[in-house]
Write a structure and sequence with these properties.
A six-stranded mixed beta sheet has the order 3-4-2-1-13-12, with no helix packed on it. It is built from nine helices and 13 strands. The chain has two domains: 81 residues; 215 residues, Deoxyribonuclease I, Chain A, CATH 3.60.10. By secondary structure, it is an alpha+beta fold. This is Endonuclease/exonuclease/phosphatase family protein. Pfam families: Exo_endo_phos.
Length: 314
């Protein structure tokens, strides 16, 4: 039978493990069942282990365990504490909204009105259907006179669009009719920017593991497109079916900046556990990201404020 000191050492060991996994999540192998990516989908939730271990340490009256618990607390604050802070103040250049509106949305008109109420200059939508598209177009036309749609994704803009084209991010094995990406140039008061809208393939948890292969292939294609983009300032809006910690999105997150403030957990809308709706930028910063009220979708919309860096050569 374990002694009180022994049980305290067990709690201390678990505390060290709780700190080590988030801090070194990239070391968790992905070869079998993509375990690493699955872990990274829920990484901030490791913090919930700490209160349970704290109670166990008190029950065991273990000073060693209580001291050891400082490590996972400090690790969590180091990794995620900044996301709890309010959005950075000061001027910003662009407000954007990203939303997977759901192909089963019962009220597209109300959804469009809710998104426009956040007063963004850009709205990116995914899972547009042929029947719902005219409703979004009509509801958003007065405030967003410029828009582009490719397949099931669309971009509505208060500023003129140019150079719109379909983005081929279709992974091998998916049929020709699959079209879930676009690129558009947007003429803003601060100059032209390139905006990408994308909806990466869904992921599933199966007996064999985390099925993210198609998502990862699509992310690789999208990352290559962004890398080849000649316009310096880039905004990527989309349902990427992954968190910014997920190594499957590394072709994007290694080239772009992620939000510095705000968790903005967006999925599922009924009880959000992950932010898979993303706003990523290049030559800019995202001062804050937040969720908007629920619509008729299974995702929550997210809104973000973007500030440009000085243009190259200026």
């Amino acid at each position: 039978m374990a002694t009180g000191a022994g049980r305290g050492r067990v709690v201390a060991s678990l505390a060290l493990l709780t700190a080590a996994v988030p801090a070194f999540h990239s070391a968790v192998p992905n070869a079998v069942g993509r375990l690493g990516s699955l872990l990274e989908a829920f990484l901030p939730w490791f913090g919930l282990v700490v209160p349970a271990l704290f109670v166990a340490a008190l029950v065991r009256r273990s000073a060693v365990a209580l001291v050891a618990l400082l490590l996972p607390v400090l690790t969590w604050v180091w990794l995620f504490g900044g996301l709890l802070l309010p959005a950075e103040g000061g001027p910003h250049h662009l407000t954007v909204v990203q939303h997977n509106v759901s192909d089963e949305n019962p009220d597209p008109a109300a959804t469009a009105t809710a998104l426009a109420a956040a007063s963004p200059q850009l709205i990116a939508l995914e899972e547009l259907t042929p029947s719902a598209l005219p409703v979004y177009e009509a509801a958003l036309a007065s405030r967003y006179p410029y828009h582009a749609v490719e397949g099931t994704v669309g971009l509505w803009s208060a500023y003129p669009l140019r150079g719109v084209r379909r983005l081929d991010i279709r992974p091998a094995g998916i049929g020709e009719g699959w079209s879930r990406g676009l690129r558009a140039g947007v003429t803003t008061p601060q100059g032209e920017i390139a905006v990408y809208v994308a909806h990466l393939p869904s992921v599933r948890i199966r007996p064999s593991g985390f099925a993210s292969q198609l998502r990862d292939e699509s992310a690789l294609l999208l990352g290559a497109a962004v890398a080849a983009e000649p316009v310096d300032r880039v905004v990527l809006l989309g349902d990427l079916n992954g968190t910014v910690d997920d190594r499957g999105l590394a072709p994007l997150t290694s080239r772009m900046k992620t939000p510095r403030r705000g968790f903005a957990l967006s999925w599922p809308a009924s009880f959000p556990v992950s932010r898979i709706d993303q706003v990523l930028v290049r030559s800019a910063s995202v001062a804050g990201i937040r969720t908007l009220p629920a619509t008729g979708s299974d995702h929550l919309p997210v809104a973000a404020r973007i500030t440009w860096k000085p243009a190259t050569g200026s």
